[in-house]
Specification:
homodimer, alpha+beta, Jelly Rolls, Arc Repressor Mutant, subunit A, 2 domains, 4-stranded antiparallel beta sheet, 8 helices, 13 strands, 40% helix, DNA-binding
Chain lengths: 248, 248
DNA sequence: GACTGTATTTGATCGAGATCAAATGTCGAA
DNA sequence: TTCGACATTTGATCTCGATCAAATACAGTC
Protein backbone atom coordinates (compact mmCIF):
# COMPACT_ATOMS: atom_id res chain seq x y z
CA UNK A 1 0.00 0.00 0.00
CA UNK A 2 1.32 3.45 -0.79
CA UNK A 3 2.46 5.32 2.26
CA UNK A 4 1.58 8.89 1.45
CA UNK A 5 3.27 10.41 4.46
CA UNK A 6 6.55 8.78 3.50
CA UNK A 7 6.05 9.59 -0.18
CA UNK A 8 5.58 13.24 0.68
CA UNK A 9 8.99 14.63 0.07
CA UNK A 10 8.03 18.25 0.02
CA UNK A 11 10.06 21.12 -1.19
CA UNK A 12 9.36 24.65 -2.25
CA UNK A 13 9.56 25.61 -5.88
CA UNK A 14 11.15 28.96 -6.46
CA UNK A 15 7.96 30.91 -7.02
CA UNK A 16 5.40 28.34 -6.02
CA UNK A 17 2.69 29.92 -3.86
CA UNK A 18 2.49 26.89 -1.61
CA UNK A 19 4.63 23.92 -0.77
CA UNK A 20 3.79 20.81 -2.75
CA UNK A 21 5.34 17.45 -3.46
CA UNK A 22 7.93 18.31 -6.05
CA UNK A 23 8.08 16.25 -9.18
CA UNK A 24 11.63 15.33 -8.37
CA UNK A 25 12.62 15.06 -4.74
CA UNK A 26 16.33 14.71 -5.27
CA UNK A 27 16.96 17.27 -7.98
CA UNK A 28 19.96 19.50 -7.51
CA UNK A 29 19.43 23.20 -7.88
CA UNK A 30 20.36 23.23 -11.58
CA UNK A 31 17.72 20.63 -12.36
CA UNK A 32 15.20 22.60 -10.34
CA UNK A 33 16.11 25.61 -12.44
CA UNK A 34 15.40 23.67 -15.61
CA UNK A 35 12.03 22.64 -14.21
CA UNK A 36 11.35 26.25 -13.27
CA UNK A 37 12.13 27.36 -16.79
CA UNK A 38 9.36 25.28 -18.33
CA UNK A 39 6.71 25.72 -15.69
CA UNK A 40 3.69 27.98 -15.32
CA UNK A 41 0.51 28.04 -13.26
CA UNK A 42 -3.07 27.59 -14.34
CA UNK A 43 -6.25 27.96 -12.32
CA UNK A 44 -9.55 26.18 -13.02
CA UNK A 45 -12.92 26.73 -11.39
CA UNK A 46 -14.98 23.99 -9.79
CA UNK A 47 -16.90 22.10 -12.46
CA UNK A 48 -14.68 23.29 -15.29
CA UNK A 49 -13.28 20.73 -17.70
CA UNK A 50 -9.48 20.76 -17.79
CA UNK A 51 -9.32 18.43 -20.80
CA UNK A 52 -11.62 16.11 -22.73
CA UNK A 53 -10.64 12.54 -23.51
CA UNK A 54 -8.85 12.63 -26.85
CA UNK A 55 -7.69 16.26 -26.53
CA UNK A 56 -4.10 17.06 -27.19
CA UNK A 57 -2.50 18.27 -23.97
CA UNK A 58 0.76 20.18 -24.29
CA UNK A 59 1.61 20.02 -20.61
CA UNK A 60 1.92 17.67 -17.69
CA UNK A 61 1.22 19.07 -14.24
CA UNK A 62 1.37 18.75 -10.51
CA UNK A 63 -1.79 19.57 -8.55
CA UNK A 64 -0.98 22.44 -6.18
CA UNK A 65 -4.41 23.09 -4.74
CA UNK A 66 -7.89 21.56 -5.02
CA UNK A 67 -9.16 18.28 -6.42
CA UNK A 68 -9.41 17.06 -10.02
CA UNK A 69 -10.95 13.86 -11.37
CA UNK A 70 -10.29 11.53 -14.30
CA UNK A 71 -13.49 10.06 -15.72
CA UNK A 72 -14.41 7.59 -18.43
CA UNK A 73 -17.77 7.82 -20.17
CA UNK A 74 -19.54 5.12 -22.16
CA UNK A 75 -21.58 5.89 -25.27
CA UNK A 76 -24.87 5.64 -23.38
CA UNK A 77 -23.68 8.03 -20.68
CA UNK A 78 -22.62 5.62 -17.93
CA UNK A 79 -19.67 7.22 -16.18
CA UNK A 80 -16.87 5.85 -14.02
CA UNK A 81 -14.27 7.92 -12.25
CA UNK A 82 -10.85 6.28 -12.65
CA UNK A 83 -8.59 8.81 -10.95
CA UNK A 84 -8.86 11.37 -8.18
CA UNK A 85 -6.02 13.88 -8.02
CA UNK A 86 -5.31 15.71 -4.77
CA UNK A 87 -2.56 18.26 -4.09
CA UNK A 88 0.89 16.86 -4.97
CA UNK A 89 -0.55 14.34 -7.45
CA UNK A 90 0.72 14.22 -10.99
CA UNK A 91 -1.43 14.76 -14.07
CA UNK A 92 -0.63 13.68 -17.60
CA UNK A 93 1.51 11.10 -19.28
CA UNK A 94 4.93 11.89 -20.70
CA UNK A 95 5.42 10.69 -24.30
CA UNK A 96 1.70 10.75 -25.01
CA UNK A 97 0.16 13.85 -26.47
CA UNK A 98 -3.53 13.05 -26.12
CA UNK A 99 -5.37 12.50 -22.85
CA UNK A 100 -7.26 9.23 -22.36
CA UNK A 101 -9.83 10.48 -19.85
CA UNK A 102 -11.98 13.50 -19.17
CA UNK A 103 -10.15 15.66 -16.65
CA UNK A 104 -12.45 17.81 -14.52
CA UNK A 105 -11.92 20.26 -11.67
CA UNK A 106 -14.00 18.92 -8.77
CA UNK A 107 -13.19 22.00 -6.70
CA UNK A 108 -11.27 25.12 -7.66
CA UNK A 109 -7.92 23.79 -8.82
CA UNK A 110 -4.45 25.27 -9.17
CA UNK A 111 -2.07 23.36 -11.41
CA UNK A 112 1.67 23.73 -11.67
CA UNK A 113 2.14 22.90 -15.36
CA UNK A 114 5.31 21.83 -17.13
CA UNK A 115 5.47 22.13 -20.91
CA UNK A 116 5.31 18.54 -22.06
CA UNK A 117 7.99 18.33 -24.74
CA UNK A 118 10.80 19.94 -22.74
CA UNK A 119 9.64 17.97 -19.70
CA UNK A 120 10.16 14.78 -21.70
CA UNK A 121 13.63 15.98 -22.55
CA UNK A 122 14.30 16.51 -18.87
CA UNK A 123 13.20 12.96 -18.10
CA UNK A 124 15.74 11.69 -20.63
CA UNK A 125 18.63 13.57 -19.09
CA UNK A 126 17.67 13.45 -15.40
CA UNK A 127 17.66 9.87 -14.09
CA UNK A 128 16.17 10.82 -10.73
CA UNK A 129 13.16 12.30 -12.47
CA UNK A 130 12.05 9.06 -14.12
CA UNK A 131 12.79 7.16 -10.91
CA UNK A 132 10.60 9.61 -9.01
CA UNK A 133 7.81 9.35 -11.59
CA UNK A 134 8.09 5.57 -11.45
CA UNK A 135 7.58 5.60 -7.69
CA UNK A 136 4.59 7.91 -8.01
CA UNK A 137 3.05 5.81 -10.79
CA UNK A 138 3.52 2.61 -8.77
CA UNK A 139 1.74 4.27 -5.84
CA UNK A 140 -1.07 5.22 -8.16
CA UNK A 141 -1.26 1.66 -9.47
CA UNK A 142 -1.54 0.35 -5.91
CA UNK A 143 -4.34 2.83 -5.25
CA UNK A 144 -6.08 1.75 -8.45
CA UNK A 145 -5.91 -1.87 -7.32
CA UNK A 146 -7.44 -1.09 -3.95
CA UNK A 147 -10.13 0.80 -5.87
CA UNK A 148 -10.74 -2.29 -8.03
CA UNK A 149 -11.42 -4.38 -4.93
CA UNK A 150 -13.88 -1.72 -3.83
CA UNK A 151 -15.65 -1.64 -7.19
CA UNK A 152 -15.78 -5.39 -7.68
CA UNK A 153 -16.56 -6.77 -4.25
CA UNK A 154 -17.67 -4.23 -1.67
CA UNK A 155 -21.26 -3.45 -0.65
CA UNK A 156 -22.66 0.05 -1.05
CA UNK A 157 -22.19 0.75 2.66
CA UNK A 158 -18.60 -0.49 2.59
CA UNK A 159 -17.91 1.60 -0.50
CA UNK A 160 -19.10 4.79 1.19
CA UNK A 161 -17.17 4.06 4.39
CA UNK A 162 -14.04 3.27 2.36
CA UNK A 163 -14.37 6.47 0.37
CA UNK A 164 -14.79 8.57 3.50
CA UNK A 165 -11.77 6.95 5.13
CA UNK A 166 -9.66 7.47 1.99
CA UNK A 167 -10.56 11.15 1.85
CA UNK A 168 -10.08 11.55 5.59
CA UNK A 169 -6.68 9.87 5.48
CA UNK A 170 -5.39 11.88 2.53
CA UNK A 171 -6.81 15.07 3.95
CA UNK A 172 -5.11 14.38 7.27
CA UNK A 173 -1.78 13.63 5.59
CA UNK A 174 -2.01 16.88 3.62
CA UNK A 175 -2.72 18.85 6.76
CA UNK A 176 -0.10 16.84 8.64
CA UNK A 177 -2.59 16.51 11.45
CA UNK A 178 -1.88 13.97 14.17
CA UNK A 179 -4.03 10.88 14.14
CA UNK A 180 -6.63 11.96 16.65
CA UNK A 181 -9.58 9.63 17.24
CA UNK A 182 -11.96 12.32 16.02
CA UNK A 183 -11.60 13.66 12.50
CA UNK A 184 -13.31 16.39 10.52
CA UNK A 185 -13.05 17.27 6.84
CA UNK A 186 -14.92 18.60 3.83
CA UNK A 187 -16.08 16.35 1.02
CA UNK A 188 -14.48 17.58 -2.20
CA UNK A 189 -17.12 15.83 -4.34
CA UNK A 190 -20.84 16.08 -5.03
CA UNK A 191 -23.02 13.04 -4.39
CA UNK A 192 -23.03 12.44 -8.13
CA UNK A 193 -19.22 12.51 -8.35
CA UNK A 194 -19.06 10.17 -5.35
CA UNK A 195 -21.41 7.83 -7.22
CA UNK A 196 -19.09 7.94 -10.25
CA UNK A 197 -16.16 7.18 -7.99
CA UNK A 198 -17.88 4.24 -6.30
CA UNK A 199 -19.79 2.67 -9.18
CA UNK A 200 -23.15 3.47 -7.57
CA UNK A 201 -26.09 5.78 -8.31
CA UNK A 202 -26.31 9.09 -6.50
CA UNK A 203 -29.51 7.93 -4.76
CA UNK A 204 -27.69 4.96 -3.24
CA UNK A 205 -24.85 7.23 -2.14
CA UNK A 206 -27.32 9.54 -0.43
CA UNK A 207 -29.18 6.67 1.25
CA UNK A 208 -26.00 5.09 2.60
CA UNK A 209 -24.71 8.44 3.86
CA UNK A 210 -28.01 8.85 5.72
CA UNK A 211 -27.67 5.32 7.10
CA UNK A 212 -24.13 5.98 8.40
CA UNK A 213 -25.40 9.20 9.99
CA UNK A 214 -28.40 7.40 11.54
CA UNK A 215 -26.01 4.76 12.94
CA UNK A 216 -23.74 7.42 14.46
CA UNK A 217 -20.70 6.50 12.35
CA UNK A 218 -20.54 10.01 10.90
CA UNK A 219 -22.07 13.42 11.59
CA UNK A 220 -23.00 15.87 8.85
CA UNK A 221 -22.65 19.64 9.23
CA UNK A 222 -24.26 21.00 6.10
CA UNK A 223 -24.10 18.67 3.11
CA UNK A 224 -20.36 18.58 2.67
CA UNK A 225 -18.72 18.80 6.09
CA UNK A 226 -18.13 15.43 7.74
CA UNK A 227 -17.23 14.66 11.33
CA UNK A 228 -16.03 11.19 12.23
CA UNK A 229 -16.41 10.82 16.01
CA UNK A 230 -14.62 7.47 16.08
CA UNK A 231 -12.19 6.63 13.31
CA UNK A 232 -12.05 2.97 14.38
CA UNK A 233 -15.82 2.65 13.98
CA UNK A 234 -15.58 4.01 10.43
CA UNK A 235 -12.72 1.64 9.61
CA UNK A 236 -14.83 -1.29 10.83
CA UNK A 237 -17.38 -0.40 8.15
CA UNK A 238 -14.92 -0.46 5.25
CA UNK A 239 -14.50 -4.23 5.06
CA UNK A 240 -10.70 -3.75 5.06
CA UNK A 241 -8.30 -5.50 7.41
CA UNK A 242 -7.77 -3.67 10.68
CA UNK A 243 -4.11 -3.02 9.86
CA UNK A 244 -5.04 -1.37 6.58
CA UNK A 245 -3.13 -3.91 4.55
CA UNK A 246 0.26 -2.74 5.81
CA UNK A 247 2.66 -5.60 6.28
CA UNK A 248 5.50 -5.45 8.73
CA UNK B 1 -4.91 3.17 -24.20
CA UNK B 2 -1.78 1.04 -24.14
CA UNK B 3 -0.77 -0.18 -27.54
CA UNK B 4 0.71 -3.58 -26.82
CA UNK B 5 1.91 -4.26 -30.32
CA UNK B 6 3.94 -1.05 -30.28
CA UNK B 7 5.08 -1.66 -26.69
CA UNK B 8 6.44 -5.05 -27.66
CA UNK B 9 10.07 -4.32 -28.25
CA UNK B 10 11.32 -7.85 -28.20
CA UNK B 11 14.85 -9.03 -27.91
CA UNK B 12 16.54 -12.23 -26.99
CA UNK B 13 18.25 -12.58 -23.64
CA UNK B 14 21.53 -14.45 -23.82
CA UNK B 15 20.23 -17.77 -22.51
CA UNK B 16 16.50 -17.11 -22.49
CA UNK B 17 14.62 -20.11 -23.85
CA UNK B 18 12.14 -17.92 -25.71
CA UNK B 19 11.98 -14.37 -26.93
CA UNK B 20 10.19 -12.07 -24.53
CA UNK B 21 9.78 -8.34 -24.04
CA UNK B 22 13.06 -7.41 -22.44
CA UNK B 23 12.93 -5.37 -19.31
CA UNK B 24 15.02 -2.73 -21.00
CA UNK B 25 14.60 -2.27 -24.73
CA UNK B 26 17.48 0.09 -25.22
CA UNK B 27 20.14 -1.48 -23.07
CA UNK B 28 23.55 -1.76 -24.58
CA UNK B 29 25.26 -5.13 -24.39
CA UNK B 30 27.09 -4.31 -21.16
CA UNK B 31 23.83 -3.51 -19.40
CA UNK B 32 22.32 -6.70 -20.75
CA UNK B 33 25.27 -8.55 -19.30
CA UNK B 34 24.61 -7.03 -15.91
CA UNK B 35 20.96 -8.10 -16.16
CA UNK B 36 22.10 -11.58 -17.20
CA UNK B 37 24.36 -11.78 -14.16
CA UNK B 38 21.47 -11.39 -11.70
CA UNK B 39 18.87 -13.42 -13.48
CA UNK B 40 17.60 -16.98 -13.16
CA UNK B 41 14.53 -18.92 -14.20
CA UNK B 42 11.76 -20.40 -12.10
CA UNK B 43 8.87 -22.59 -13.12
CA UNK B 44 5.51 -22.83 -11.35
CA UNK B 45 2.65 -25.24 -11.97
CA UNK B 46 -0.92 -24.19 -12.63
CA UNK B 47 -2.67 -23.41 -9.36
CA UNK B 48 0.57 -22.96 -7.42
CA UNK B 49 0.99 -19.86 -5.30
CA UNK B 50 4.02 -17.82 -6.34
CA UNK B 51 3.78 -15.52 -3.31
CA UNK B 52 1.28 -14.65 -0.60
CA UNK B 53 0.35 -11.07 0.18
CA UNK B 54 2.80 -9.88 2.83
CA UNK B 55 5.56 -12.31 1.88
CA UNK B 56 9.03 -10.98 1.37
CA UNK B 57 10.01 -11.42 -2.26
CA UNK B 58 13.70 -11.23 -3.09
CA UNK B 59 13.22 -10.97 -6.84
CA UNK B 60 11.34 -9.10 -9.50
CA UNK B 61 10.52 -10.96 -12.69
CA UNK B 62 9.37 -10.94 -16.25
CA UNK B 63 6.75 -13.48 -17.27
CA UNK B 64 8.24 -15.64 -20.01
CA UNK B 65 5.46 -18.18 -20.44
CA UNK B 66 1.98 -18.75 -19.03
CA UNK B 67 -0.39 -16.58 -17.03
CA UNK B 68 -0.19 -15.36 -13.44
CA UNK B 69 -2.73 -13.40 -11.42
CA UNK B 70 -2.61 -10.84 -8.61
CA UNK B 71 -5.51 -11.22 -6.19
CA UNK B 72 -6.78 -9.41 -3.12
CA UNK B 73 -8.80 -11.24 -0.50
CA UNK B 74 -11.08 -9.78 2.14
CA UNK B 75 -11.35 -11.25 5.63
CA UNK B 76 -14.63 -12.98 4.82
CA UNK B 77 -13.20 -14.56 1.69
CA UNK B 78 -14.46 -12.22 -1.03
CA UNK B 79 -11.78 -12.14 -3.70
CA UNK B 80 -10.95 -9.67 -6.45
CA UNK B 81 -8.31 -10.15 -9.08
CA UNK B 82 -6.37 -6.90 -9.55
CA UNK B 83 -3.74 -7.94 -12.05
CA UNK B 84 -3.36 -10.48 -14.84
CA UNK B 85 0.19 -11.06 -16.04
CA UNK B 86 0.79 -12.48 -19.49
CA UNK B 87 4.12 -13.20 -21.17
CA UNK B 88 6.36 -10.08 -21.23
CA UNK B 89 4.59 -8.53 -18.23
CA UNK B 90 6.56 -7.43 -15.21
CA UNK B 91 6.06 -8.78 -11.70
CA UNK B 92 7.14 -7.15 -8.47
CA UNK B 93 7.93 -3.68 -7.26
CA UNK B 94 11.47 -2.37 -6.98
CA UNK B 95 12.25 -0.77 -3.59
CA UNK B 96 9.57 -2.78 -1.83
CA UNK B 97 10.46 -6.05 -0.25
CA UNK B 98 7.00 -7.41 0.54
CA UNK B 99 4.29 -8.23 -1.99
CA UNK B 100 0.91 -6.57 -1.61
CA UNK B 101 -1.18 -9.22 -3.36
CA UNK B 102 -1.46 -12.98 -3.65
CA UNK B 103 0.41 -14.01 -6.79
CA UNK B 104 -0.86 -17.25 -8.32
CA UNK B 105 0.04 -19.25 -11.41
CA UNK B 106 -3.18 -19.52 -13.44
CA UNK B 107 -1.48 -21.85 -15.91
CA UNK B 108 2.01 -23.33 -15.84
CA UNK B 109 4.28 -20.32 -15.60
CA UNK B 110 7.90 -19.64 -16.41
CA UNK B 111 9.41 -16.55 -14.79
CA UNK B 112 12.65 -14.82 -15.68
CA UNK B 113 13.64 -13.56 -12.23
CA UNK B 114 16.09 -10.79 -11.36
CA UNK B 115 17.48 -10.63 -7.84
CA UNK B 116 15.75 -7.61 -6.37
CA UNK B 117 18.52 -5.74 -4.59
CA UNK B 118 21.05 -5.76 -7.46
CA UNK B 119 18.19 -4.99 -9.84
CA UNK B 120 17.46 -1.86 -7.82
CA UNK B 121 21.09 -0.92 -8.12
CA UNK B 122 20.83 -1.34 -11.86
CA UNK B 123 17.82 0.98 -11.96
CA UNK B 124 19.87 3.63 -10.20
CA UNK B 125 22.72 3.49 -12.67
CA UNK B 126 20.82 2.75 -15.89
CA UNK B 127 18.50 5.63 -16.80
CA UNK B 128 16.84 3.73 -19.65
CA UNK B 129 15.78 1.01 -17.26
CA UNK B 130 13.65 3.27 -15.07
CA UNK B 131 12.26 4.99 -18.16
CA UNK B 132 11.31 1.59 -19.56
CA UNK B 133 9.71 0.52 -16.27
CA UNK B 134 7.85 3.83 -16.14
CA UNK B 135 6.36 3.18 -19.58
CA UNK B 136 5.33 -0.34 -18.60
CA UNK B 137 3.80 0.85 -15.33
CA UNK B 138 1.86 3.60 -17.10
CA UNK B 139 0.50 0.99 -19.53
CA UNK B 140 -0.54 -1.14 -16.59
CA UNK B 141 -2.23 1.86 -14.96
CA UNK B 142 -4.19 2.50 -18.16
CA UNK B 143 -5.26 -1.14 -18.20
CA UNK B 144 -6.28 -0.90 -14.54
CA UNK B 145 -8.44 2.12 -15.35
CA UNK B 146 -10.21 0.34 -18.19
CA UNK B 147 -10.74 -2.51 -15.74
CA UNK B 148 -12.26 -0.07 -13.22
CA UNK B 149 -14.83 1.03 -15.81
CA UNK B 150 -15.66 -2.62 -16.38
CA UNK B 151 -16.04 -3.35 -12.65
CA UNK B 152 -18.02 -0.22 -11.83
CA UNK B 153 -20.38 0.20 -14.74
CA UNK B 154 -20.64 -2.75 -17.09
CA UNK B 155 -23.35 -5.42 -17.07
CA UNK B 156 -22.46 -9.08 -16.59
CA UNK B 157 -22.78 -9.74 -20.33
CA UNK B 158 -20.60 -6.74 -21.20
CA UNK B 159 -18.01 -7.87 -18.64
CA UNK B 160 -17.74 -11.32 -20.21
CA UNK B 161 -17.55 -9.93 -23.74
CA UNK B 162 -14.91 -7.41 -22.65
CA UNK B 163 -12.85 -10.10 -20.95
CA UNK B 164 -12.97 -12.35 -24.00
CA UNK B 165 -11.94 -9.51 -26.28
CA UNK B 166 -9.08 -8.53 -23.95
CA UNK B 167 -7.75 -12.09 -23.89
CA UNK B 168 -8.27 -12.49 -27.63
CA UNK B 169 -6.45 -9.23 -28.36
CA UNK B 170 -3.48 -9.97 -26.11
CA UNK B 171 -3.31 -13.53 -27.33
CA UNK B 172 -3.31 -12.32 -30.93
CA UNK B 173 -0.60 -9.74 -30.23
CA UNK B 174 1.55 -12.42 -28.57
CA UNK B 175 1.12 -14.72 -31.54
CA UNK B 176 1.57 -11.78 -33.91
CA UNK B 177 -1.41 -13.09 -35.83
CA UNK B 178 -2.99 -10.84 -38.42
CA UNK B 179 -6.37 -9.38 -37.49
CA UNK B 180 -8.58 -11.92 -39.20
CA UNK B 181 -12.34 -11.61 -38.69
CA UNK B 182 -12.38 -15.04 -37.06
CA UNK B 183 -10.34 -15.66 -33.94
CA UNK B 184 -9.65 -18.70 -31.82
CA UNK B 185 -7.88 -18.96 -28.47
CA UNK B 186 -7.75 -20.83 -25.17
CA UNK B 187 -9.06 -19.33 -21.96
CA UNK B 188 -6.19 -19.21 -19.47
CA UNK B 189 -8.59 -19.00 -16.50
CA UNK B 190 -11.19 -21.17 -14.78
CA UNK B 191 -14.75 -19.86 -14.47
CA UNK B 192 -13.98 -19.04 -10.86
CA UNK B 193 -10.87 -17.00 -11.76
CA UNK B 194 -12.88 -15.23 -14.46
CA UNK B 195 -15.46 -14.38 -11.80
CA UNK B 196 -12.69 -12.96 -9.59
CA UNK B 197 -11.44 -10.93 -12.53
CA UNK B 198 -14.88 -9.54 -13.37
CA UNK B 199 -16.39 -9.01 -9.94
CA UNK B 200 -19.08 -11.65 -10.55
CA UNK B 201 -19.94 -15.11 -9.21
CA UNK B 202 -18.86 -18.17 -11.15
CA UNK B 203 -22.51 -19.06 -11.79
CA UNK B 204 -23.12 -15.73 -13.49
CA UNK B 205 -19.98 -16.18 -15.58
CA UNK B 206 -21.17 -19.61 -16.69
CA UNK B 207 -24.67 -18.36 -17.49
CA UNK B 208 -23.41 -15.44 -19.56
CA UNK B 209 -20.96 -17.64 -21.44
CA UNK B 210 -23.88 -19.93 -22.28
CA UNK B 211 -25.94 -16.92 -23.37
CA UNK B 212 -23.18 -15.66 -25.69
CA UNK B 213 -22.90 -19.18 -27.14
CA UNK B 214 -26.68 -19.44 -27.59
CA UNK B 215 -26.65 -16.05 -29.38
CA UNK B 216 -23.86 -17.15 -31.73
CA UNK B 217 -21.35 -14.57 -30.52
CA UNK B 218 -18.90 -17.30 -29.49
CA UNK B 219 -18.46 -21.03 -30.01
CA UNK B 220 -17.07 -23.36 -27.36
CA UNK B 221 -14.87 -26.36 -28.16
CA UNK B 222 -14.47 -28.11 -24.85
CA UNK B 223 -14.72 -25.82 -21.82
CA UNK B 224 -11.71 -23.67 -22.50
CA UNK B 225 -11.30 -23.24 -26.24
CA UNK B 226 -13.15 -20.26 -27.69
CA UNK B 227 -13.91 -19.44 -31.30
CA UNK B 228 -15.11 -15.96 -32.19
CA UNK B 229 -16.71 -16.18 -35.65
CA UNK B 230 -17.14 -12.41 -35.93
CA UNK B 231 -14.86 -10.16 -33.92
CA UNK B 232 -17.03 -7.12 -34.65
CA UNK B 233 -20.06 -8.86 -33.15
CA UNK B 234 -18.10 -9.56 -29.97
CA UNK B 235 -16.88 -5.96 -29.80
CA UNK B 236 -20.48 -4.76 -30.06
CA UNK B 237 -21.22 -6.65 -26.85
CA UNK B 238 -18.46 -5.02 -24.82
CA UNK B 239 -20.11 -1.62 -24.40
CA UNK B 240 -16.87 0.04 -25.57
CA UNK B 241 -16.62 2.59 -28.35
CA UNK B 242 -16.20 1.05 -31.79
CA UNK B 243 -12.71 2.56 -32.13
CA UNK B 244 -11.57 0.93 -28.91
CA UNK B 245 -10.83 4.24 -27.28
CA UNK B 246 -7.91 4.97 -29.58
CA UNK B 247 -7.66 8.66 -30.43
CA UNK B 248 -6.06 9.83 -33.63
C1' DG C 1 -14.12 -49.45 -17.84
C1' DA C 2 -15.70 -47.98 -13.23
C1' DC C 3 -14.64 -44.64 -9.68
C1' DT C 4 -13.53 -40.16 -7.66
C1' DG C 5 -12.81 -35.50 -7.28
C1' DT C 6 -13.22 -31.26 -9.55
C1' DA C 7 -15.03 -27.96 -13.00
C1' DT C 8 -19.00 -26.47 -15.09
C1' DT C 9 -23.81 -25.96 -16.14
C1' DT C 10 -28.53 -25.26 -15.04
C1' DG C 11 -32.58 -24.31 -12.01
C1' DA C 12 -35.29 -21.77 -8.35
C1' DT C 13 -35.51 -18.02 -5.37
C1' DC C 14 -34.02 -13.83 -3.03
C1' DG C 15 -32.38 -9.27 -2.17
C1' DA C 16 -29.24 -5.16 -2.78
C1' DG C 17 -29.03 -1.59 -5.49
C1' DA C 18 -31.12 0.59 -9.77
C1' DT C 19 -34.80 3.14 -11.56
C1' DC C 20 -38.58 6.25 -11.61
C1' DA C 21 -40.80 9.88 -9.14
C1' DA C 22 -41.48 13.51 -5.93
C1' DA C 23 -40.37 16.31 -1.97
C1' DT C 24 -37.06 19.17 0.45
C1' DG C 25 -33.05 21.97 1.26
C1' DT C 26 -29.84 25.60 -0.23
C1' DC C 27 -27.76 29.48 -2.11
C1' DG C 28 -27.13 33.33 -5.11
C1' DA C 29 -29.50 36.83 -7.98
C1' DA C 30 -33.16 40.04 -8.66
C1' DT D 1 -37.89 38.43 0.50
C1' DT D 2 -38.93 35.82 -3.36
C1' DC D 3 -37.55 33.28 -7.26
C1' DG D 4 -35.09 29.88 -9.81
C1' DA D 5 -31.60 26.52 -10.46
C1' DC D 6 -29.47 22.87 -8.38
C1' DA D 7 -28.06 19.49 -5.03
C1' DT D 8 -29.80 16.30 -1.99
C1' DT D 9 -33.04 13.33 0.35
C1' DT D 10 -36.75 10.14 0.56
C1' DG D 11 -40.29 6.89 -1.26
C1' DA D 12 -42.14 2.98 -4.21
C1' DT D 13 -41.13 -0.51 -7.27
C1' DC D 14 -38.41 -3.38 -10.34
C1' DT D 15 -34.47 -6.04 -12.02
C1' DC D 16 -30.06 -8.09 -12.47
C1' DG D 17 -26.96 -10.76 -10.41
C1' DA D 18 -26.27 -13.35 -5.92
C1' DT D 19 -27.36 -17.29 -3.40
C1' DC D 20 -28.68 -21.91 -2.53
C1' DA D 21 -29.17 -26.37 -4.59
C1' DA D 22 -28.64 -30.07 -7.77
C1' DA D 23 -27.36 -32.18 -12.08
C1' DT D 24 -23.84 -33.04 -15.55
C1' DA D 25 -19.34 -33.23 -17.77
C1' DC D 26 -14.72 -34.43 -17.55
C1' DA D 27 -9.88 -35.90 -16.42
C1' DG D 28 -7.21 -38.82 -13.93
C1' DT D 29 -6.35 -43.07 -11.58
C1' DC D 30 -6.95 -47.62 -10.11
Amino acid sequence: MPNRSLALSEMTCADCPIRHRAVCARCESDELEKLDAIKYYRRFEAGQTIAWAGDKMDFVASVVEGVASLTQTMEDGRRQMVGLLLPSDFLGRPNRESVSYDVTAATDVMLCCFRRVPFQGLIEETPHLSQRLLEMTLDELDAAREWMLLLGRKTAREKIASFLSIIARRDASLKNSKNATELAFDLPLTREAMADYLGLTLETVSRQMSALKRDGVIELKGKRHIIVPDVEALMDETGDDADGGVYI
